[in-house]
Amino acid sequence: MAGVCNGATGFTVHQGEPTRVVPAEEAEKGLYYLSNLDQNIAVIMRTIYFFKSESKGNEDAVEVVKNGLSKILVHHYPLAGRLTISSEGKLIVDCTGEGAVFVEAEADCELDDMGDISKTDPNILGKLVYEVPGAQNLLQIPLLVIQVTKFKCGGFCIGMSMNHCMLDGIAAMEFVNGWGEVTRGLPLKTPPVLDRTILKPRNPPTIEFEHHEFDDIKDISKTNKLYEEEMVFKSFLFDCEKLGHLKEQAIEDGALTKCTTFEVLAAFVWRARCKALNLVPEQQTKLLFAVDGRQRLIPQLPQGFAGNGIVLAYSISTAGELVDKPLSFAVGLIQEAVKLASTDSFMRSAIDYFEVTRARPSLDGTVLITTWSKLSFYSMDFGWGEPISSGPAALPEKPVVLFLPHHEHKRSINVLLGLPVSGMKAFEGLMQI
After folding, report:
1. Contacts (Cβ under 8 Å, ≥6 apart) of 44
2. What whole-number distance in Å separates Cα of residue 95 and Cα of residue 7?
3. ∠ at Cα 35 (398, 96), nearest 5°?
4. Catalytic residue among 215, 292, 381, 406
5. Which regions form coiled coils (predicted)?
6. Would you call 138 helix, strand, or coil by DSSP?
7. Is residue 215 flagged as an active site residue?
8. Regarding the domain delimited by 13-199, which CATH topology (the fold level of the hierarchy) does it fall under?
9. Would you say 401 and 368 are in contact if contact means Cβ atoms under 8 Å apart?
């Protein structure tokens, strides 16, 4: 086993040689279509799931999880393939049946020795997700990589690396929950629907809207220079009381009559980030966030749709307006964006826009908020009960902010982000509400 040492917390993870887990039954071969919504978010997502049972040790955890993976890949066979480029110059999956990459690992400590495992620190948690050495680009990274790490206390961790082009958050949760079900010998509650051709562009493509989510924004505030500093990752808990206080603040000037938890929290974080990074007043800043199109598309996407059913909504403002105007201004911008993006016509237009331009959303001068607060992170079960903790092992890009569920308090939200050291100090102060 190769040793991966983490000096920050003094624990070592010994990783075994990677093997391949192939579908338990012969699966389809050939090229598998990825939609234009999949093309836009081809980034690697790394998540971790910690398990510990009072009545059961981890002696057979690796074999049990591995056998279950082989079974679930029968249903999700594209994940056993490899990413390639189609004749049209788009990402497509070659269903080779090569399998997922699987690594067995052991940590020289107990779970309790790691401190608060719910806090995302990529320097620590990154040791629990295997990175394929020598990969130069996305095509060289397998679509699904699993590491199972056993701890001395009898607990274990599943570290999963998956390309977002394969599954969005809802579909990924259905995948891991289904993985748990087949591992325990149960039928799938939600069998995957793999056909993505229902999201094909129209012929001819019809662009009905301006798609500023793809706009490049000039960095006149020199934030890229700031990002050369050491990055610090922190999470901030917003309980019901704090969220209620923010909603009161958003409607107190009478500009709005109501707002959702997402709208007010996204607005608050967007403004605070602008202040913390000390953006010049003329700096344009863009907020991107995902809107789930499953039930908004016509016809609706089928239950169990295994792909990306999301489009990116956008709001754009100058930093000066955002910071100087009341919170209701930013909330109002987000409400307009939600309304615009929540229609079949906008989503079809976004699909067609990519078909014509091959543009990808620019992250310069941008905050990208991803909401995982309603995802079923704690419902999977491989035979050891639900996870004692789960979440991201790292953020996929520097401008990404995650809204995560709280394990015990379902209506509370953890806001996770990374900022340069100096920016994080200022941001922490702004979170004291």
Report:
1. 138, 141, 161, 162, 163, 164, 396
2. 40
3. 95
4. 381
5. none
6. helix
7. no
8. Chloramphenicol Acetyltransferase (3.30.559)
9. yes
Burial class (CB in 10 A: 0-12, 13-18, 19+), 243: middle
Residues 6+ apart with CB under 8 A from 111: 50, 52, 117, 151, 153, 155, 388
Query: What is the full per-residue pLDDT of the chain (433 aa) written as tens digits?
Result: 544 434 345 689 999 999 999 999 999 999 999 999 999 899 999 999 999 999 999 999 999 999 999 999 999 999 999 999 999 999 999 999 999 999 999 999 999 888 776 666 777 888 999 999 999 899 999 999 999 999 999 999 999 999 999 999 999 999 999 999 999 999 999 999 999 999 999 999 999 999 999 999 999 998 888 888 888 999 999 999 999 999 999 999 999 999 999 999 999 999 999 999 999 999 999 999 999 999 999 999 999 999 999 999 999 999 999 999 999 999 999 999 999 999 999 999 999 999 999 988 778 889 999 998 777 777 899 999 999 988 899 888 889 999 988 766 678 999 999 999 999 999 999 998 8
Omega before residue 142 within 30° of 0, cis: no
Instruction: Give SS3 for 36.
Output: helix
The span from the CA of 159 to the CA of 148, in Å, is 6
Active site residue 164: yes
Domain positions in the chain: 13-199, 212-431
The one-letter code for the residue type at 227 is Y
What's the CATH superfamily of 212-431? Chloramphenicol acetyltransferase-like domain (3.30.559.10)
Which residues are within 8 A (CB) of 426 and not within 5 positions of it... i.e. 6 or more apart? 275, 276, 278
Token output for 430:
């702004």
Active-site hit among 75, 76, 164, 211: 164
- DSSP labels, 192-232: -B---GGGPPPSS----S--GGG-----TT-HHHHTTSPEE
d(CA 125, CA 106): 14
Q: State pTM to two decimals.
A: 0.93
User: Half-sphere exposure (CA, 13 Å, Cβ side) for 372?
Assistant: 26
Same fold, 13-199 and 212-431: yes
Measured CA to CA, the distance from residue 348 to residue 38 in angstroms comes to: 14
